[in-house]
Write a structure and sequence with these properties.
The structure is a single chain. The chain is built from 17 helices and 2 strands. By secondary structure, it is mostly helical. It has one domain (about 5-390). It has a two-stranded antiparallel sheet. The radius of gyration is 21 Å and the shape is globular. Residues about 1-20 have low confidence and may be disordered.
Length: about 400
């Protein structure tokens, strides 16, 4: 059901005022993450463990383990960067209406269109005689009504509205995080340790309490229980970074993080390798039980938190280094990234449906699926953006 978007963060960034001017490095980072979303959904059916297609490759398990461990949290952090400046320049009413337009409206439309179309491909594989009209009616009345990757939109909307209330209570609420961000201009390790500590506290406790498979669900409104506090933390930490002193903070163009080499990328290898060790222990020693012991969940949560924070720093360090660079292939996608995120899931699932019975290697299927999903999603988004007024949303 998961997994996706700073594509959604694209909407958040575009809707923010220019108190924090457009930042080429952040534009490219969120566009890169949109592509990661497409890759994530393209490879899931072909993973070695739990694959739903006859073809599989264990390398795709490595991709899914990495992407699922960081990209949603990073989307929320990037989305939070522009919230405090936006609240500073907009009345509560206008802020609320803007969020409804850019997040609520796309969620509502896609929940009734894109998502049923996408999941109908799965329905046909299980019940070939099922009609779309009957499937759609059952989905929106009886359920289940999955939201796919679109859950991000309503959760982000909820965080935005919560931020609006908190800002009205105290505009200086996030000053401690902002001061830590300023300290991170010269000492990014200090901010990393803060992010890691917060992640451990909110994620490990939630993972132990709820487990990893429990979702809060009400119609199309769903979110993974063990990660909701993690996402909220990253969102408000991002808001703290962007609240003020942006260029003198952690993400400043001339800061230490922007001048980091490969050290952050290397730092991801230790927790990532540890996650694979724990997966091997679960399968080979524990026998892959349905209920894992607390010590296992605790250790997994620790390494998950370390990897999530480290790879976020590695990606930001990479793109911050090229803020003043010339043209990038990512620039051409930037304008349509949010729309591609909104519509891609239907294309991804239907392409996988059509490729299911074809005898091709898993890698070939993924390349075909990813290329067609990107091309069709991009073309549809470009077409939708020609509709008068649509660019206010897309």
């Amino acid at each position: 059901m998961i997994s996706i978007s700073q594509s959604d963060a694209s909407a958040e960034v575009r809707s923010a005022p220019r108190a924090v001017s457009r930042n080429l490095s952040l534009d490219r980072a969120r566009t890169f993450l949109t592509i990661v979303v497409l890759v994530h959904h393209a490879v899931i059916p072909y993973t070695y463990f739990g694959h739903t297609d006859p073809a599989s490759w264990i390398g795709f398990d490595a991709i899914v383990l990495a992407t699922d461990s960081f990209f949603m949290a990073m989307f929320f952090l990037l989305s939070g960067l522009f919230v405090w400046p936006s609240l500073r320049h907009k009345s509560p009413g206008w802020f609320f209406l803007d969020r409804l337009l850019r997040l609520g409206l796309p969620f509502l439309i896609a929940a009734f269109t894109v998502i049923p179309i996408a999941y109908y491909a799965i329905e046909l594989r299980q019940h070939p005689d099922s009609s779309f009209a009957e499937f759609w009616r059952k989905t929106v009345t009886v359920g289940p009504w999955p939201s796919g990757p679109l859950w991000f939109l309503w959760v982000l909307l909820a965080f935005d509205l919560t931020a609006s209330l908190l800002y009205r209570l105290s505009p200086n609420l996030l000053d401690p995080i902002n001061r830590l961000s300023i300290r991170g201009f010269d000492k990014p390790v200090d901010f990393f340790l803060f992010l890691f500590a917060v992640t451990v506290i909110v994620y490990v406790s939630s993972r132990l309490y709820f487990g990893v498979n429990h979702w809060f669900e009400f119609g199309p409104f769903s979110v993974q229980a063990s990660r909701i506090l993690l996402y909220a933390s990253y969102f408000f930490i991002g808001a703290g970074i962007g609240a003020a002193n942006f260029e003198r903070g952690l993400l400043g163009a001339n800061g230490r993080l922007a001048n980091s080499g490969w050290s952050w990328a290397v730092a991801t290898l230790i927790p990532y390798g540890a996650l694979w060790v724990l997966i091997a222990v679960k399968r080979e020693i524990l026998g892959n039980p349905g209920l894992l012991p607390h010590w296992y969940e605790f250790l997994y949560g620790i390494f998950f938190a370390a990897f999530s924070a480290a790879i976020l720093f590695a990606i930001l360090a990479f793109f911050l280094r090229f803020k003043r660079a010339g043209w990038s292939v990512l620039d051409s996608l930037q304008r349509d990234a949010y729309g591609i995120f909104l519509v891609h899931y239907a294309f991804a699932l239907w392409i996988q449906y059509w490729l299911f019975g074809i005898d091709l290697p898993a890698i070939v299927k993924v390349v075909i699926g990813l290329a067609v999903t990107l091309a069709t999603g991009w073309a549809l988004t470009a077409g939708l953006r020609q509709i008068p007024g649509s660019q206010r949303v897309l």
